[in-house]
Amino acid sequence: MKHYLYALGAILCWASLPAATGSSLTGMSVPLLMVISFCCAAIYLYAQDVVCTRSFRIYFPDCKVSLLGIWGIFGYHYVYYTALNKTPLAEAAILTTTWSFWIVVFSALLLFRRIKLSIVLTALAGLTGAAMVIAAGKDLVISMQYMQGYMLSLLCGLIWASFSVGLSKSNMKANPMTAFTVYAALLSVLMYLVSPAHPVPSAQNILAAMYLGCVPLGLSFFLWSQAVRGGNMVVIGFLSYLTPPLAVLMVAIVNGETVSEQVIFGMVVIIAASIAGRFALEQKEECS
């Protein structure tokens, strides 16, 4: 049970970003955003490690796992931020949410050694619910001019899903996320130095990027690693569908807004799909 609480904690961290920062990240270049956020994430996780382990040493995993971390942490966020710059926000958010679907599918495939139709259908239902939440009150238009952004958004889903499932299969006693964020921070600084001039960030930009680094990145990375290295990835995949509705609910609470019926219905669909997926998983485990 604790692994699913860790997963929910990470999901709440991700969901808090829109409510906490609003549009304060608008106008920042991708390299600058990555430098500030990953440096803050690395500092946060290192300080947390020092407090928890009473050691100043950083645990660096072997080369194979380190490459997995660079792929999942640096690679995902670079592609994600780039996709948001090339695609309308609602469409990008829906397409990047496919990582929840792929986590369920990849994990079920590894667990049962073949595709289970019931698992796939419930995963698609959860994805549909998430899309309903994101699309509420917005005009969705698929345009060829944004095709590159669409492809990058879909790639985000595959990167984070493969990283999460790969991390769940790695046998590590220590949490590798501090090392992963150090790698990402160093690569971000390098990318920033070789890229063209960037607009000067405002104080709001910097504060929002620092929050992004400490909570939706730093704290969530620790919680997500704890979750995937011990919990059932199929269940965690279903839980991750809750990210969009929780984000909408937090924004509504902070701004005193009402939540639309479509958002509520989408959340009901997600919860129903999660329950059905868990039931299907239990049935398949009993038959195995």
Automatic annotation (TrEMBL):
Transmembrane annotation, as ranges: 28-47, 59-80, 92-112, 119-137, 149-167, 174-194, 206-224, 236-256, 262-281
Membrane topology: Multi-pass membrane protein
SUPFAM superfamilies to which the protein is assigned, alphabetical: Multidrug resistance efflux transporter EmrE (SSF103481)
Keyword Signal in record: yes
Keyword list, A-Z: Cell membrane, Membrane, Signal, Transmembrane, Transmembrane helix
The UniProt record lists the keyword Transmembrane: yes
Superkingdom to which the source organism belongs: Bacteria
Signal peptide: 1-19
The protein, known as: Multidrug DMT transporter permease
